[in-house]
# Entry
Amino acid sequence: MNIKPVIISSRGAGVFVGQDGRMELVVNQNRNRERIDKLLKDFKKEMGKGVNVLEKLYVSSPKDYQSLFKEKDAIDVVLLYVLGVTPIDELLNWQGPIIAFSGQYTPAMALYAVAEERHQRKNLFIALDYKDISNILRVLDAKQTLSQTRIVLFGSPPTWHLRWYGFPDLEAIRRKTGLQFIPVELRELVDTVQKVDTEKAASLADKWIAQASQVVEPTPEHMQKSAAAYLAMEHILTRKGAQAMAINCLEITQSQKFSEQIINPCMGMSFLRDKGISSGCEMDIPGLLSMIVLSNLGQKPAFMGNIVHADPKNNVIKLSHCIMPTRMPGFEEDPLPYTLRDYHGAKGVTAFTDIPTGVEVTLARVQRNLERVVAFTGEVVGCEDTTFCRNTVAIKIIDTRDFIRQAEGNHHAMVFGNYLEELEMLSSVLDCNFKSL
# Structure
């Protein structure tokens, strides 16, 4: 993201507050700018390589804001260093995000400047420290990513699913987030599978087998068909310029309509998630959106599963499904060990990915039209291969009964790490009610 530092001073003099609470007025302009350069150097160091810091702008009178608006197309976020007193009315015409900051743990000047105004608009923030700035930037980056995301919908929702869930208003979601949905018939996917280069599919299947800790049931033929399904989905996603997908996989796995033409897509979807392409099962779009949001915030792949057990005595829930990414710790981290297995004890390919215990996780599900988010954290206390579905994760949470009372649906997304604060902030930016359990 492109960050524009805007430094407000009092006619060239800077007000700095020390950790002891003492305020210091620096009137010497050279000394003042040395202090500011040190602040910006610290900021760049703390933010790392993920942000691009543009040339700073000094403001000591309202007319100094004019040059800012000439650069508006190049700026994603304004970082407002409040180190003095200058009217900000002109700045508040800036429609993009603004983060006000007046030094580590010294919020006085930022509170002076925008404490009241920030309650009038959702993209005006006050940061207490660099951690706050980092979290806010993560949220803004996630929002920007959402607005640029295209989602392929393979097939239509299963009929039984429509009886249980109201299908989302895709236009309402687009208006709120910028997300775009692209329908693709399952027949097109099946036809694309038939056109996949068999040598390329065989080579990919061999790679998956070589990387696995163990191969139990799947035959080389099934592995090659699974690789072909992955390559076909990847080809269509690339052609459509899409960064996520949902599929009516039940029409493939539970009916005879496409029998022998395409294998269950589970294995391919696991590896798509590893690449940052969130992939939703059963055409569950709210479940997919939950995955996309958590994956964007955590910069890790997300898992999606059924709540198959909820123990109110021990406050442990079990989340179960067949598509566990191997890179749950992070896109750039080493993959977790996985065992190649069949699908639900029958023909097909899935993988059991052995995730570690003791990991803190965030779980969430959004309401179908992104009007509400329910989220909570927990700790992984177990992981087992349960065949139907393949991966079942036991998670210790605070209050199982409260979770069941508040849950927006069955499928919940899970990501490694605690992102409740960022999720609450993103919900506010998207005008979405947030409930933390």
Notes: The domain at 148-436 is CATH 3.20.14 (L-fucose Isomerase; Chain A, domain 3). The first strand starts at residue 2 and ends at 8. The mean pLDDT is 94. The two ends are 32 Å apart (CA to CA).
